Amino acid sequence: MMGKHANKVVGSIAEALAPLRDGMTIMVGGFGLSGNPEALIRGVVERGVKELTLVSNNAGNLGKGLATWLKAGIIRKVICSYIGGNEDLHTRMASGDVQVEITPQGSLAERMRAAGAGIPAFFTPTGVGTVVEEGKEVREIDGRRYLLERALHGDVALVRAAKADRFGNLRFWRTARNFNPVMASAARLTLVECDQLVDNGAIGPDDVHLPGIFVHRIVHVPEHENAFEYRTVRKR
Amino acid sequence: MTYSTEDMARRAAREIPAGAIVNLGIGLPTQVADYLPEGHAWLHSENGLLGMGPFPFEGEEDPNLINAGKQTVTVLPGGSTFDSAWSFAMIRGGHVDLAILGAMQVSAGGDLANWAVPGGKVMGIGGAMDLASGCRRVIAMMQHTTKKGEHKLVARCDYPLTATRVVSLVITELGTFEPTGHAFRVIDLAPRVTREHAEGATGAPLI
What are the residue boundaries of the structural domains of chain B, listed by start? Predict the structure, then answer.
């Protein structure tokens, strides 16, 4: 018998995604197109699962990333904080094909952090006196009003890391980190796509951004598109 | 003569004390950064960046170093990157001194509406509610009226709210105004903007 943390490195995206089933709640890291597990996202469409609940800050943009799941019609519900110019999501929401739950960005992150930390719900000031308050318990604590937000659990998290060792200790690059660590902690099964795979010990214990206890399968994907959403520069 | 957007950004920059941690909202507030002396304040971006620098030089842009508007940016010496939960702990925990945010409506009581137009396309909340209710001070930067001339500084917001009683200052092309409860106090008016003009453009009393 093998423990959950033996032999995490798998040889293919298909092998990593084998446990996916119809109707699962899948959390996908990224802020827009930044920090996306690109190969895992593509692999889910090829895997052929459907009726998914997607947890993502934006659910893709510019027709790329998770917008391909919307186009493929494999999503039943999206839990996100922002739609903006994501026309694929606007279209599917307007037609009623996809149900959308909009959550303030900080509450979305904290709901997953809470899930990963074994906290079933928490009180937050965010959203008090707004539509976000509707249907939620409100309590006054030390003279200020707070509303109760519940933990958000996932069946699977798809995570993008810059570097992983074989135990799954991760390092991220710049703002590609975003929701990836909290999603890894909030899901029962975390699949990581890493740019670089190294031996255990190559990442010093003090340099680990996310400990490998939150990681279950690792695929090494050296090449990524890393699409720009808005390329803004200044002249020299 | 009304303030240009550059004047408004310059005016907003004057509200930022040295060494402050500041979050600049998407759109108009982003320009405030152009009027801050180098090293004056630390800019926070809610996608997970503190110590945000200007846009990168051509050829140095990194798709994984972006601001909350998903524009490519840089990070200054002393800057740091972190995950979304940490980023919003900074905001919700009151560690961010000031947020300068765009607004669709602000009430005399300091209520802020900046995420949805009734009957319009739903764009989502993003970090707006967390920033508005979590940052220690909130300044709204906005056009004084809609393109059709409808009031945006109002007695009571009728757009969906972002947070209640949070705005401490409103900067528009007509001047600077402080929500006091039932009225807006005039802090300053743009050159040659009369009080009568400002009164006509405001949906609540001016004091």
Answer: 5-200
pTM of the model: 0.97
Pick the catalytic residue from B6, B15, B38, B46: B46
Q: What is the pLDDT of residue B121?
A: 87
Show residues of chain A in contact with B162, CB under 8 Å: 130
| A16-46 CB burial, b ≥16 within 10 A, e <16 | bbeebeeebbbbbbbbbbbbbbbbbbebbee
Residue A174 with chain B: CB contacts under 8 Å: 49, 62, 64-65, 75, 81
B46 is catalytic: yes
Contact state of A234 with B48 under an 8 Å Cβ cutoff: no
Any CB–CB contact under 8 A between B124 and chain A? yes
Q: Which residue of A has its CA nearest to B162?
A: A130
- Fold (topology level) of A21-102+153-220: Glutaconate Coenzyme A-transferase (3.40.1080)
- Contact (Cβ atoms closer than 8 angstroms) between residue A220 and residue A197: yes
B117 to each of A129, B103, B125, B159, B195, how far by Cα in Å? 17, 11, 12, 6, 29
- CB of A33 within 8 Å of a chain B CB? The answer is yes
A152, A187 contact by CB (below 8 A):
no
Interface residue A132 vs chain B (CB under 8 A): yes
With H, G, I as helix, E, B as strand and everything else as coil, classify residue A137. Answer: coil
For the segment(s) B5-200, the CATH number from 1.10.260.40, 3.40.1080.10, 1.25.40.80, 3.30.2010.10 is: 3.40.1080.10
**pLDDT at residue A46 greater than cutoff 90:** yes
Mean pLDDT of all residues in A162-186: 98
Name the stretches of chain B with pLDDT < 70.
Answer: none
- To the nearest whole Å, the CA of B13 is away from the closest chain A CA by 21
Chain A residues within 8 A of B48 when measuring between CB atoms: 31, 175, 177-178
Beta pairing, strands B175-179 & B167-171: antiparallel
User: What is the average per-residue pLDDT within A26-52?
Assistant: 97
φ/ψ of B139, rounded to 5, equals: -115, 135
